[in-house]
Amino acid sequence: MSRSADTWILTAQCPSRLGTVDVVTRFLKESRCYITEQQSFDDHHGERFFIRTEFRPLEPDFDAEAFQAAFAARAAEFEMAFELTAPDARMPVVIMVSKADHCLNDLLYRYRTGQLPIEIRAVVSNHPDLQPLADWHGLPYYHFPITAETKAEQEARVWEVVEETGAELVILARYMQVLSSDMCEKLSGRAINIHHSLLPGFKGAKPYHQAFEKGVKLVGATAHYINDDLDEGPIITQGVEPVGHADDPEDLVAKGRDIECMTLARAVDAHVARRVFLHGRRTVVFSR
Amino acid sequence: MSRSADTWILTAQCPSRLGTVDVVTRFLKESRCYITEQQSFDDHHGERFFIRTEFRPLEPDFDAEAFQAAFAARAAEFEMAFELTAPDARMPVVIMVSKADHCLNDLLYRYRTGQLPIEIRAVVSNHPDLQPLADWHGLPYYHFPITAETKAEQEARVWEVVEETGAELVILARYMQVLSSDMCEKLSGRAINIHHSLLPGFKGAKPYHQAFEKGVKLVGATAHYINDDLDEGPIITQGVEPVGHADDPEDLVAKGRDIECMTLARAVDAHVARRVFLHGRRTVVFSR
Amino acid sequence: MSRSADTWILTAQCPSRLGTVDVVTRFLKESRCYITEQQSFDDHHGERFFIRTEFRPLEPDFDAEAFQAAFAARAAEFEMAFELTAPDARMPVVIMVSKADHCLNDLLYRYRTGQLPIEIRAVVSNHPDLQPLADWHGLPYYHFPITAETKAEQEARVWEVVEETGAELVILARYMQVLSSDMCEKLSGRAINIHHSLLPGFKGAKPYHQAFEKGVKLVGATAHYINDDLDEGPIITQGVEPVGHADDPEDLVAKGRDIECMTLARAVDAHVARRVFLHGRRTVVFSR
Amino acid sequence: MSRSADTWILTAQCPSRLGTVDVVTRFLKESRCYITEQQSFDDHHGERFFIRTEFRPLEPDFDAEAFQAAFAARAAEFEMAFELTAPDARMPVVIMVSKADHCLNDLLYRYRTGQLPIEIRAVVSNHPDLQPLADWHGLPYYHFPITAETKAEQEARVWEVVEETGAELVILARYMQVLSSDMCEKLSGRAINIHHSLLPGFKGAKPYHQAFEKGVKLVGATAHYINDDLDEGPIITQGVEPVGHADDPEDLVAKGRDIECMTLARAVDAHVARRVFLHGRRTVVFSR
């Protein structure tokens, strides 16, 4: 169900233990919050519990701060980390790109039409090419060129933009530079990359050319949180597209664009809807 | 997660009201039952609440009868209907067929290998053709021929088999006779049919021939609960398969077989795992 | 294979008869044209033959006019209609829209980046809303409002635009007005509409709302040539998207957008690549 | 179009050169053979030409031997290898299995119902488990146990079965032993293996467990010709299935079965319909 104008989201996670669901649902009931949708999962491998709840406060004067303060006391007993998301929340975002524009174009469309509840604070690139696209959408565009010598400096400037804009999410929409380990760590759990292959197949550079050489009959895309192991971050969404013997590498590039856009958009949508939990090298995704 | 040997399922539904989740989860906690997976949904259209919970009793001497008796008292206050399903439950099933054997063959394979937690008590048909297949699996096969005159009588005998075998689910695995309104009512919510089109497209007879005439580029299959409105029962699962200009009606028939098998098997799997709730003319399906 | 800069397309159709392939391939060989890809299909239902050939002239001074004149003589014997398409052909197109912008936005992106070999000559709408989008792409936008009284007049103006721009294809990218029979006839085989359902399911208005009422588990989109029978024109491409019980009609609308864009883009791509043949109430589509 | 009772298939390949299509189609016309469907592809990477033609002889006394002899003379000039397949051809096949029965069960069903035009001459296994299944279908079952010491000897016996039965295709339907390089070479282009991952991801043992560790959101299956590089043979077909965080490795195993069966069946179907051409490390597949 699309969240209506009065629907909040409460997400939480903690070590596995009896009563983890109860502590959430009882508090909501006592707070006269009406649960419209709830999913929970207890991972017996990692012994960790995850829950996502959509609810509507029944009283008109719902006080989010008081709610959080009161719940924090109960959550503490379970070592439970939680987050409350308001109905009108729009996550502040920075998008990083290089020269390919399809993912950026797609995100900007979903942003402009309100399909994605994000607020794009800046577009950052190591190339000037996509500035007109950002301009048309009235968005600041930062061009930070990069060379072997200036890599560290460029990253510092990117980080400045992230900090100053208050971005909670960085989207690497076909950004073709490898981030440093330090940057990856700073952005852990809040930077989503789209890789143009079905990971773990075809890591690294030119995956479509690798796919052509191998003669695969499906190409794909993988959206994942970045970590310091290139193309090895926890996977959020994956998509595929059939290809054939007559497709040259450039055809695979062209055919892959749509599935890259869709796969990235779905990952971002799930992330901002608080449907994704980072869980070690994997993710928990409560699908709609 | 595949249910382990000690995982029970509790499903429930009731009119929408504050506290519906809480009454379930609080009781489970008090009963020292550990929730491993839970999904709930509150339908604001129908003002009805649905919940499905998988849990493991932490105490070795879990008493299902006592659990149900105790929970019934609490559920009554919410007009909540509920069902408790044991870890080793195998739903007793009767399968109805005519001449086409692909869905039956598929179900028998999943049954024989334990993939589907059902216990097939009988195969019933208006034709003798599929007896050898039932025989090989050691299953009783009832051949009740049907004519315009004997239709009511035949249905009575089918009903006898359902009653005597204690079947909780009837699967119409390409059974090509229309059931009477009376029979549909008796089997409401516990008879699943596979129709070989993407309903509501191509209702009635020879849907693949209709699809050929129309020149569609996708054919499909729909598994649904039966009701007395032919091919209009609440949909559980649907699947599709691409087709092309070179496909004759017989090709569509052949290409559709796999998707019919898969779509029916998924519906049955969801039903026996108590993932499906009948909700007026629609269904609520908590997917895995 | 993506057509390289020197690859021509020859398409043809005629009544079924011995030698239809031979007349094409022999002529190409004699003309020293090198066939890189060829597909033919002889429909035994309609007794009609279809062929599509991609070829590279081996001589540097390929004369398209002379080629056509020479081939016409041979084709005549087979009552064969044919078309020769140059490597750099860009089909002139008029796009018609109402208020929804997702399909237009998608087509404009593919146009701007050269993915679709079309040349958009105008955007025509019965509403002013999408003018800024057309403006940014530097395209003429014609706003022809429509009322019950002005319908005929508006269509006349649309037709004028089609004529004056020399458009060979009209794309109805979520144009929400029914065209007159006369207009449908004039545009026969060269106007593609996107309908937001899996036809023949949910014809007419508000198909997603119909789909919600029916409780389907898949929604879809259908791109088809228009004819004077509403939503009954010959189908080119269809696509689907899974939906669930928690999706309200507005969610179906939102979830359907991507598949509408993709389905329409694929139909347009196939049409301009001369992969689609109109064949009575059906189409022949030589897929890549 | 499903091949009717009088439709022959002619396939051919040769080095790229002007006139390759013409030599085929002209001969067919002169032989009064009516082409119903034709696809050709010229690979500019490998400079090799491939063609597949379905045709109906118009004269009642079509002489296949004379046809081949006459065409051989023309083909020789183009160094063209060709194959003529009769309407009623059923390819003799040997199936190899270990303990998992789903692919075998699926192939046997398609064989028994005539969906796959093959003639299964024997089932060979390194385990006795699947003998009852073969027995029910009236098929010889050879149990050749295997140990490190007897591996060469066992392969020799397998080869004997292949030779003696005249098998033209060997299907490795989840056969869990690696074949020797010698055996792979002998079976080059006529042995199809199903690997339970989307190659090149997750080669080798226990791919579903690897997929679980990696946290992928899609699992898949790959049907390929074997070669002496394990899981690296030319790919024919691939299929995928969505999975989620709640799926344990055993769930992936269960969910993957259907897609393995479908992917293998499609590869075998394409191979026996002469739609697949081995082309170095890749394949050309003329899809329907």
From TrEMBL, chains A, B, C, D:
<feature type="active site">
    <location>
        <position position="231"/>
    </location>
</feature>
<keyword id="KW-0658">Purine biosynthesis</keyword>
<dbReference type="InterPro" id="IPR004810">
    <property type="entry name" value="PurU"/>
</dbReference>
<dbReference type="InterPro" id="IPR002376">
    <property type="entry name" value="Formyl_transf_N"/>
</dbReference>
<dbReference type="InterPro" id="IPR044074">
    <property type="entry name" value="PurU_ACT"/>
</dbReference>
<protein>
    <recommendedName>
        <fullName>Formyltetrahydrofolate deformylase</fullName>
        <ecNumber>3.5.1.10</ecNumber>
    </recommendedName>
</protein>
<feature type="domain" description="Formyl transferase N-terminal">
    <location>
        <begin position="93"/>
        <end position="267"/>
    </location>
</feature>
<keyword id="KW-0378">Hydrolase</keyword>
<dbReference type="InterPro" id="IPR041729">
    <property type="entry name" value="Formyl-FH4-Hydrolase_C"/>
</dbReference>
<dbReference type="InterPro" id="IPR036477">
    <property type="entry name" value="Formyl_transf_N_sf"/>
</dbReference>
<comment type="similarity">
    <text>Belongs to the PurU family.</text>
</comment>
<comment type="pathway">
    <text>Purine metabolism; IMP biosynthesis via de novo pathway; formate from 10-formyl-5,6,7,8-tetrahydrofolate: step 1/1.</text>
</comment>
<dbReference type="Pfam" id="PF00551">
    <property type="entry name" value="Formyl_trans_N"/>
</dbReference>
<comment type="function">
    <text>Catalyzes the hydrolysis of 10-formyltetrahydrofolate (formyl-FH4) to formate and tetrahydrofolate (FH4).</text>
</comment>
<dbReference type="InterPro" id="IPR045865">
    <property type="entry name" value="ACT-like_dom_sf"/>
</dbReference>
<keyword id="KW-0554">One-carbon metabolism</keyword>
